[in-house]
Specification:
The complex is a heterodimer of chains A (118) and B (226).
Chain A lengths: L2 H18 L7 E7 L6 H11 L10 E7 L2 E4 L5 E3 H4 L11 E5 L3 E9 L4
Parallel strand pairs in A: 1-2
Antiparallel strand pairs in A: 1-6, 3-4, 3-5
Chain B lengths: L3 E9 L2 H16 L3 E7 L5 H12 L5 E5 L6 H10 L3 E3 L10 H13 L8 E5 L16 E7 L6 H4 L1 H6 L2 E5 L11 H11 L4 E4 L8 H13 L3
Parallel strand pairs in B: 2-5, 2-6, 3-4, 3-5, 6-7, 7-8
Helix pairs in contact in B: 2-3
Classes of the chains: A alpha+beta (118), B alpha/beta (226).
The structure holds guanosine-5'-triphosphate (GTP), magnesium ion (MG) and zinc ion (ZN).
């Protein structure tokens, strides 16, 4: 379980972006998280809600998670399939000669901030 | 509610850590210092194995050791008592892993006291855990882990990421093989299936078996650093 560790990474990055853009309040932070990245969403949100209170800029920021479907590619039959349903073994030809195309992501997609010009 | 504006970031959460790790690796290689990250479950024998290895090698090489214990400096003191070498305590704020920022802060401590340049090899005893440490690049040149006989030969199947990122897997406590249903051949197969390039060495810190082979592996890494 390293949800808290990665929350600290996210906070550090977002604080940096806020500083560069002269932002003093963030409404929300959206993460792109792959289905097989091994992160537990509820735990991530719990850690976030605990850690954000120590950061004035993020005090009210909501953490949003955008899930990215995991897709595996089979080298033998050149087909793609859903990783979560079938794992490492290709459901079309039974080969194990497969690799993950996407689904392992863990990145900060965007943040929402109050629009002060309006 | 007022209007909001969106700022796109699209940055991998691990990107900064990976960058820092890369810098640490480069900087240490330039100074000809080999940095090795040692991982395992709690109690697999990291402190014991490292202490005997360091005692074997310390005549010829200047060795440093970094330790993290969540609440005490027990391991750092054990290693320094057993070997007489300098140990450094990493403070990781009670987290489940060590990252590149933490190791670079510890290395800076060595640097400040003017000792960094003297080292030939630095070991990091990571936190006892087969999951989290595997996710974070520490800046080490080589990752190695210890799987001890009492843990069972199925561990590679349960913790695949750890076994796939390690350059070396020690199968330790082999002096206890007769008490456990641990099949070394099966363990090797399970490891190589995940990580065909892994080097595997069975060792016992008690009888000294395998220690020479481990030492040569380290010496080879040292030679190939530059
Ligand atoms: N029989 C036998 N016992 C060993 C061997 N290596 C370590 N031990 C014992 O295993 C126990 C744990 O060893 P440590 O070296 O403290 O293990 P560790 O991985 O550093 O533990 P943590 O830092 O707490 O995660 C100790 O009682 C050691 O004496 C070995 O090769 N054979
Ligand atoms: Mg220890
Ligand atoms: Zn196929």
């Amino acid at each position: 379980m390293h949800e808290l560790g990665v929350v600290f990474y996210v906070i550090k990055d977002v604080k940096e972006v806020a500083l560069q853009n002269n932002i003093n309040k963030v409404n929300s932070v959206t993460l792109d998280i792959g289905e097989v990245s091994g992160v537990i969403h509820e735990q991530l949100i719990d850690c976030w809600d605990w850690a954000k209170k120590r950061e004035p800029v993020l005090e009210e920021a909501v953490l949003k998670i955008n899930t990215i479907k995991a897709v595996t590619f089979c080298e033998d039959c050149k087909k793609e399939y859903e990783t979560v349903a079938h794992g490492k073994i290709c459901p079309y030809c039974g080969s194990e000669n497969t690799y993950l195309l996407e689904g392992n992501e863990f990145s900060i997609k965007e943040i929402e901030v109050p629009d002060e010009d309006n | 509610m007022g209007k909001v504006r969106v700022i796109e970031i699209h940055e991998n959460v691990f990107a900064k850590n990976d960058q820092k790790a890369l810098e640490t690796r480069k900087e240490l290689a330039l100074k000809d210092i080999l940095f090795i990250n040692v991982m395992s479950s709690p109690g697999s024998g990291k402190t014991t194995a490292l202490s005997s290895l360091i005692n074997k090698m310390k005549g010829e090489y200047k060795i440093g050791e970094m330790d993290v214990d969540i609440h005490t400096d027990i391991d750092a003191r054990k290693v320094s008592d057993a070997t007489g070498i300098e140990t450094l305590q990493i403070n990781n704020g009670g987290l489940c892993h060590i990252d590149a920022d933490m190791t670079s802060r510890a290395l800076e401590e060595y640097e400040k006291s003017g000792k960094l340049e003297d080292f030939d090899i630095i070991f990091l005893e990571n936190i006892g855990n087969l999951v989290c440490p595997a996710e974070f690049d520490t800046g080490a040149h080589k990752n190695m882990m210890i799987l001890s006989v009492p843990e069972g030969d199925d561990k590679p199947l349960k913790y695949p990421l750890m076994f796939s990122i390690c350059d070396l897997v020690l199968i330790s406590k082999i002096d206890t093989l007769s008490f456990f249903d641990f099949d070394i051949q099966k363990a090797k197969e399970n490891i190589l299936r995940l990580n065909p390039k892994a080097k595997i060495i069975p060792i016992s810190a008690k009888t000294g078996e395998g220690m020479d082979e481990w030492q040569s592996w380290i010496e080879d890494c040292k030679k190939n650093l530059k």
